[in-house]
Structure formats: C-alpha cells, structure tokens
Write a structure and sequence with these properties.
heterotrimer; A: alpha/beta; FAD/NAD(P)-binding domain; Enolase-like, domain 1; 3 domains; 13 helices; 31% helix; globular; binds flavin-adenine dinucleotide; redox-active center (chains A, C); NAD (chains A, C); FAD (chains A, C); Lipoamide_DH (chains A, C)
Chain lengths: 472, 86, 472
C-alpha cells in the first residue's frame, strides 16, 4: 500500500459497468454483499452506449421510414423525409434514459458507484485511477472481484480508426448525416445490421467480406434470406475480398481490396465502417500484477461458476469469451454474483439464444441439424415457411421460416433457427422449451394464439412429427 | 368476449398427459402424490401399480369424463396436494 | 332416403370449413379416415374471410400509415396518403391467398370437398343442399360427424344490419372508403380493434358501451392502457349507454342511446358498427331432426373429447361455446378428429391464450390474480413495466406491462397478462410454460435474448420471486 493512500474495503468488487458488470453488482448487493462497481466511462457499457441499444434504435427508426415508403401495395403512399440529426437526438435520448436507469438501479440496490479505471495490485486489491488530470487514485481491497471489462472492435492492418474516414461501429452509430456512399468491411451481424440501416436511410452501401457469404456461422438457407433482402435494398456484396489499403481522394476515400488471386478492386466511398469482430479488453486491468493469463484469443479463462484461476476473481461477459452477447454477459454476471455470495450457482444453461436484427431478423437457440448430428444425435427437423403463416401475410411479410431440431428417438427439442419477422421474440418460447426439456409434442400440444407468428413455431414442431396441418 | 376458460391444474407437459390417457392413468391421482412436476416415469410407474390401468381402453372415456369434471370444478385437489407437499 | 337420391358414405363428415372444421378435416384425413368437408360459403370460415385475417390486415396497414405520421420525434417526417380502395384490394388479396391455401391443404390431405349446406337427417346421415337454384341436394351417410358451423354477430333490437348504415364487423371490414364519422356500438375486442383502425385511417370515431369501461372481462389496469391510447387517437367513449334507436338524416344517420336514468343522447354518424358479441350458428343444421339440444346460449354442449350427446357427433369451435377464438376452434377440431379416429385424445389443455390486436396489443393466458385466488391458490404476482425494457424504447414504445401469476408455495406459473407491443407473440412462451408446468425460476433461469421484449417476461418472473434486476 502506497504511503498516504487510503484503502477502503468491499466484499464484492465489480470492474466494468456493462451488462455483465451492472447485473453482477445489482445481484450481489441484493444478496447482501457490500458491493462496489468501478466504471471508467459510461454505465451500461458497450451494449447501452455504443452497441445493442443505439443500433436497434436506428434500425427501428429507419424501418418506420422504409416501411412507409414500401407500403404502396397496401394502399399507403408516403415519401418520408429523414432528419438524421433528429434521429440521432432521439436515439441518444433512448440511450440516456437507459444508462441513467442503470445508474439508479445500482444506487437503489445499494451498490457503491466509483468512477475510474481499476487495475489489479494483487488478488485482493485494485487501484482505481480516477479519470481526468490530477484526480488521483485510491486503493480498494475486495473479497471477491468480478471482471466485466468487455470487448473492443478488432482492426484491419492499415485501417486504423481515425474518427473521420475509417470508423468502428461506435462511430457509425453516431453519424450526424447519412453518408452518400458507405463501404462496409465485414458481413458479420454488426456489419449487416448497420448496412441495412444506412441503405434504408438512403446511403449507397457496398459490403466487402473475406468469406463467401453474409453472416458467417449461420446456415446457408438463413443467410440467403437476409442476403436477398439486402440486395433488394440495393446493397452491393463483394465476397472473397480482403480490405488491403486506402487513401483519401477529393470526394472522400478510395479503398483497395485483394482477393485470393491478388486481384485488386477499388471502391470509392465517403466513409468506411470496419466491422470484423471484437476482442476482449484486458489491458486496462494490469493483469500482469496478479499473473492472470489470457488465452490465445485474449479471453480470461473461467470455470462454470465464471471463476478465473484465482479463487477470489471471476470474469464475465465479453472478456470471458464467446458468445459475445449482452444476455450471456448478464447471465454470467448473475452466476458470478451468486457464487461470490456463496450460493451453489453454475452457468449450466442448456442454450444461449442469439438474434440478428437484420431485415428480416434471425434468431437461433441450441443446436442446428448438423451440430446435433455432430453431437451424436439422430436429428429430426420440422420447418414452417413464413409465407404459409396468416399473421405474416397480414403484416405484408413472406420470406423466412421457422425450423426446429429434435432428436428422433425421444423428440426432445435440441435447437431452433428462425429467419423472419419478430424472430428475436419468437425464439423465447423455444429457449424455454429447451431449458424445460420439452418434447416436440409439448410445443405442438400447446395452443398458440391465432393469428400470430408464433403459430409457425407450433407448426414447425408439428411438421417435425409429420403432423403439420398448414404445410405439406 | 374472449372470456378464457381457466384450467391450470396439473404440472405435467402435454406429452405426459397424453401418455397418461393412453395408459388409462388418471393424472390427477399422480398429482396428489407427486412432488412437483409430473414426468413420464411417474406416469409409467403409476400405470404399473394403478388398478385403473387394468381396465384399459374402455376406461379412457371414463377417465376423460372424470378429468373433465375436475377441470370444471375449482382445483381444491391440486391446492390440497400443494399444501401436502410442504 | 328419398327416392332417386344417391347416398354416398364417408367415415368422417365435417360440417363447416372455418378453423375448427378445416383443421378437423385435414387431421382426420391424415389419420387415414375417409373425410368429407361440407362448406356452404367460403373456406376458412369467419376467421379467414370476415374476422381474424381481414381485421389484422387492416390493423397493420393502418399502422404503417399511422406510425409514419407519428415518427417526428424519431426524425422521420411523413404525411402518408391512404387509398382505401387499394388497402381493401391488398387485404382481399391476403384473404384470397389464405383461403385458397386452406382449400389446397384440404385437397392435398385427401379431403373430399363438397359445397353446400348440410342438414341432419339422423345421427348417421345429412342432406347437403347445394347452393344456387336447381342445384339439388344429396344425402351423405357418416360414421362420425364434426359440427363446426361457427357463430354470427348478435344484433341489438331495432338495429338490424342493413348493409348500408347499420353494419356488422364483416361489412365494416369491407368498406371501400373511410367513413367520416363512425359510431361503434360495443367496446369489446372487435369494437376496439375496428375503432382503432378507422381512427388511424382518419375517421371521427365515437364508441358507446353499456358497461363502464372498454374491454369488459379484462382487468382494469389492462383496459386503461388501451383506453388511454385510444383516447389519444381521438376516439370518444361514452359508457353506460345502450343503443336504443336510429333514423336516417340528410348527412347519414342519427343514433339515440339511453343510460340507466333514461337520459337520451344523440349521435350523428355516417355508419354505425354494431359489435356486441357473437352467438352460435345452429339453425343451418336442422338439429331438430336428431333432437340435439343446445344450451341457453345456443351452444351445443360437448364433453372433453368434443363429443355431443350423440356418440357419433362432435361439435367444435364457436358453435361449441366460449372462448370463441380461432385457435380454440383449431385445437378442438384436432381433438375431435383424433377421437373420431379412435385415439385417446382429450381437450385437456391447461390454458387457452387470447389476444386483442388493439394499440397496444393485449394478450392473456391462464389465470388472473383474482381468478387464482378464487381457485384456492395463494397467488404471487410479478410485473415488469414496458418503459423499463430497452427494446421497447428502441421501438418508441413506453406503455404497458408484463404480469405473471404463480402460486406462492411451489411457484408454478398459473397465468400471465400482457399489454404492450407484440403482446400477442410474447404470450406464446408463457403458454408453453403453463402447459409444461414451469415454475417462475424456470422462466427466470432461461436466458432471454437482448434486446427483446421477451426480457420483460423474464423480468416479470424474476420480480415475482423478489429477484428483479431491472425494476425496483
Ligand atoms: C454495434 C454493436 C451491436 C451489438 N448488438 C448486440 C445485440 O443486439 N445483442 C447482444 O446481445 N449483444 C450485442 N452486442 C454485443 C454487446 O454489446 C456485448 O456483448 C456486451 O456489451 C458485453 O457486455 P460486457 O458487460 O461484457 O462488456 P461492455 O458492455 O463492453 O462493458 C465493459 C465496460 O467495462 C468498462 N471498463 C473496461 N475496463 C475497465 C477498467 N479497468 N476499470 C473500469 N471500467 C472498465 C468499459 O468502460 C465498459 O463500460 C453489440 C455490440 C456492438 C458493438
Ligand atoms: C372481426 C372479427 C375478428 C376476429 N379476430 C379474431 C382473432 O384475432 N383471433 C381469434 O382467435 N379469433 C378471432 N375472431 C373469432 C374467430 O373468427 C372465430 O372464433 C372462428 O372463426 C371460429 O371458427 P369456427 O370454425 O368455429 O367457425 P367459423 O369460422 O365461423 O366457420 C363456420 C363455417 O361453417 C359454415 N357453415 C355454417 N353452417 C353450415 C352448414 N350447415 N353446412 C355447411 N357449412 C356451414 C359457415 O359458412 C362458415 O364458413 C374474430 C371474429 C371476428 C368477427
């Protein structure tokens, strides 16, 4: 301990106030632990400030304009004008409302909030450097610490973020005007969500992707539905190309890509969004002081209680590895807090759902057919096309499907894949089904409201049993 | 008005309820003796001990009728079984 | 048997091609029964032709226009024009597509389709009168018959439907232009859905209702959310008044209502929609020939296999009583078909969900708190306000809540009430939960995708256990 320094103590120290951290802190305090949350930037972390929330806000605002523009077949004629500054202001209002909410939820739960950057001193102490010059620092001793420092965008060599031309998603979400031409590097979920937003807002969007389709990791028939719709929106895809270099031009920038034959292609653009993945943030923590190792991906390894190699230190959320999703972070935060409070908690969830808020949405949970095969099951699948669902037609949607995967013997639900309207909400039922150990018959034997998209879930389960009424 | 009928009597999934019907087991009998959610094995165990099951096929309709009576009456039985579990 | 008449035989005869009937017929054929479906009018029945589907189509089409008009705070400026004839054409296209779909699903399943009105001759024979003059009739003998003749709108004395001024919902759904002033008698779900549509399309809507609030049967705090929004849309409510008489005027009609003190109020309108409930259709069946009795509400009584007093005759859907909902009709159709095929099927569903597609939507399943009390439970409730849900804010929604009801001892889920965006889809998870015998912890222990409205379901379950993170 440094002379003249005051060391205060806390039972539970949480480092980082994103979804992983704030949930851990609130739950810890609810369980009676004296809890301190250290955040260096903004409550809510990436998710609320620069991720999930602002992206979904822009998606829904651009949808209102786009839907109205596309509704002539429904007898609605509109030529909406978009005021991007106004849209940004609204989106920022949503973010502010939610981040303030997180702050006050923490306070109401009795969490001590400390602003600053926490670095490990040893496995029972951190030093918190307060932001700004001459703000000083303080030492904090803890019984348990939960590391929830999140992740940051990966970069492409020679494409350093410059706040002007080469943008991470965070900057793209904060643009005050719609770029005339936007180049997007990476067709993962963030690249696809933002390409869709800007295409709907009127930008000419070009996407370059090293692999050979959009949304790597998703099954082909799912990616195809989203790619087709994106192409209808005018998005231009270029697969098998890697961003190689760029330079400024009179009108903006010119980006060079190379394919595997070293063929160079050039794209002019006003801005370039680089969205090629995210990597854990640990360099803010001085992990070397406690000799806590990260793996080859920079992830802090944890056990099923989210405990690191140190008994007293947990790690949750993006910093603890894939899937880098806010709800996984929250669920881990909850487990770590309970474990720190001495409960026999474990991250033993059977499935973590995931959604992509493209047009249409994608949502998945549990195993795909081929994952089920690889896991030794004899999978049976059932599929219901969205175009055969009455509710979908009433909202003028036709593309997509609901697919369920079960094992042929016992018909236990193993997984589901949905691409279509409200996929992100429909997946909830199937997530509960997997956690409950539901069989296909249980889903098919549950009455689903008419007319809803959830009837397609019902029908997919019936189809897997050869009992579909509304499909052949 | 969509005045929805309220049922919620047995904590057993549809697949288990169907099995009970197939085996001629009155699932509310199990509800009275089981702790928590009724499983397929509870039903099978009951089918082996339940004299009910020996009257098989024909009893299905009686079973169904009995079940219906229960479902129409408020669930005094499930409530008392819930208390019995404590 | 009449001389010169040909009697053909069928194992399963289904009377009426609405959701109850067509599902029964398809399932019956799938189970190997020689199945015949008799429909006198249009495949899909009330639901597809004059109910669920056209109403939801108009709701979503009017929403597109309304949402765009209301999006200034989101930075979207639009002044959509509605071409009602175009909207009607689109809606009719949706209906046609779905009714053709039902017809071809029946054919593909091997169902014999017969057009005409079926009347009972005895408990093993019907006579089918073919529509149109001189089309003749035929006798059909059956082993099992499933009656699925549906329901029709109730009338108010002196307010006979005249196809011009006094309209049932069916006619209101077929209007070619938006009435300037619409008077709606009845604030049940059909009245409220259609009032909302026409208010959004620019009509001046006045509602009169005998009882003292909208949506009788729903809890006050749910009705209040919908009433408030409807009032914001400019809908004028007049409770405690009964429609008494009407006359034509130069500009349209004048309707008189009376309250319990006999005070008369007059309303001028262009059209008057009467939506005061529905009653079973049985007079088309010549039930007297088999002496099948209906109850005091005109409903054909059935047991839990949907069997009537006659071993060979089942009744499903609206004609078999409340709740008069399409998905209840389908589920009963399925049970009856299975029972006719000799399976030990029973309508033993633990809960039937219901949705109202107002703005915002309502959806319920299982018991309310007071119903749970009345049933002898000691209920515990958990509630999550929509305004604390991130996804809701990103779609610019703030009103409503998710409420779950469980028993305090074992925490088994007993029911749920939702008012808010996508309520009709969110209820699916809770329906599955009730059927599965889920406990609150099962829902709270299932990871829900962020950011989605389904997180409010998760949070309500946690709240009921005193473990909410996102509410106080
Ligand atoms: C554009 C975009 C869209 C996304 N959309 C979705 C989506 O729809 N759904 C979804 O589930 N996920 C989405 N994500 C991912 C989601 O944002 C992350 O999975 C989530 O934020 C991870 O939460 P976390 O708590 O682990 O970390 P973060 O949210 O990254 O929070 C970490 C916090 O720790 C702070 N911190 C770091 N080091 C220190 C230190 N030493 N001391 C003090 N504080 C520190 C940071 O300032 C930060 O606030 C999206 C991400 C992006 C970029
Ligand atoms: C405006 C409106 C909106 C609605 N919205 C919803 C909703 O959102 N969700 C919901 O679940 N429900 C809704 N409903 C209710 C739903 O339409 C009914 O519950 C459903 O149609 C009942 O199905 P059914 O098969 O019992 O009867 P019906 O759909 O009424 O079908 C009965 C069929 O039988 C035929 N028929 C009658 N007698 C004979 C005979 N003797 N011989 C041959 N054919 C005969 C009729 O021509 C008709 O086609 C709505 C209803 C209305 C009016």
């Amino acid at each position: 301990m440094v002379v003249g320094d005051v060391t205060t103590g806390t039972e539970l120290l949480v480092i980082g106030g994103g979804p992983g951290g704030y949930v851990a802190a609130i739950r810890g305090a609810q369980l009676g632990l004296d809890t301190t949350l250290v955040e260096r930037d903004a409550y809510g972390g990436t998710c609320l400030n620069h991720g999930c929330i602002p992206s979904k806000a822009l998606i829904s605002a651009s949808d209102v304009a786009h839907d109205a523009r596309q509704a002539e077949s429904m007898g609605v004629f509109a030529d909406p004008a978009v005021d991007m500054a106004g849209m940004t202001e609204w989106k920022d209002g949503v973010v502010t409302r939610l981040t303030r909410g997180v702050e006050s939820l923490c306070k109401n739960a009795g969490v001590n909030l400390v602003e600053g950057t926490a670095e490990f001193v040893d496995d029972g102490t951190v030093r918190v450097a307060h932001g700004g010059e001459g703000q000083g620092s303080e030492s904090l001793s803890f019984e348990h610490a939960i590391v929830a420092t999140g992740s940051r965008p990966m970069t492409v060599p020679d494409f350093e973020f410059d706040g002007e031309h080469i943008l991470p998603s965070k900057d793209a979400l904060a643009l005050e005007s719609v770029p005339e031409k936007l180049l997007v590097v990476g067709a993962g979920y963030i690249g696809m969500e933002l390409s869709t937003v800007f295409a709907k807002l009127g930008a000419e969007v070009t996407v370059v992707e090293m692999l050979d389709d959009v949304l790597p990791g998703y099954e082909d028939d799912i990616a195809a539905v989203v790619r087709d719709r994106a192409e209808e929106l005018g998005i231009d895809f270029n697969f098998g190309e890697a961003a190689d270099d760029w330079n400024e031009t009179d009108e903006g920038i010119r980006v060079q890509t190379v394919d595997e034959d070293d063929t160079v292609t050039e794209y002019n653009a006003e801005k370039c969004l680089v969205a090629v993945g995210r990597e854990p943030v640990t360099e803010t923590l001085a992990l070397e002081n406690i000799d806590l190792q990260t793996d080859e991906n920079g992830v802090i390894p944890t056990d099923d209680q989210c405990r690191t190699a140190f008994e007293s230190v947990f790690a949750v959320g993006d910093v603890a590895g894939e899937p880098m999703l806010a709800h996984k972070a929250m669920a881990e935060g909850e487990v770590a807090a309970r474990a720190a409070a001495g409960e026999p908690a474990a991250f033993d969830h059977q499935a973590i759902p995931a959604a992509v808020f493209t047009d249409p949405e994608i949502a998945t949970v549990g195993m795909t057919e081929s994952e089920a095969e690889a896991a030794g099951f004899d999978p049976v699948i059932g599929q219901m096309p969205i175009r055969a669902n009455g509710r979908a037609l009433t909202v003028n949607e036709k593309e997509g499907f609901v697919r369920v995967v079960a094992d042929a013997d016992e018909e236990f639900l193993l997984g589901a894949q949905i691409v279509g309207p409200e996929a992100s909400e429909l997946i909830a039922e199937l997530g509960l089904g997997i956690e409950m150990g539901a069989r296909l018959e249980d889903i098919a034997g549950t009455i689903h409201t008419h007319p809803t998209l959830s009837e397609a879930v019902h029908e997919a389960a019936a189809a897997a049993r050869g009992e579909a009424v509304h499909t052949r | 008005e969509p005045a929805v009928t309220q049922r919620v009597q047995v904590a057993a999934p549809p697949s288990v309820r169907r099995l009970a019907r197939e085996l001629g087991v009155d699932i509310s009998n199990i509800a009275d003796s089981s702790l928590g959610r009724i499983t397929e094995s509870d039903v099978r165990a009951h089918a082996n001990t339940d004299s009910y099951s020996s009257t098989q096929e024909q009893s299905n309709q009686q079973t169904a009728a009995a079940e219906r009576q229960k479902q129409q009456a408020p669930s005094t039985q499930s409530v008392s079984s819930v208390q019995a579990r404590e």
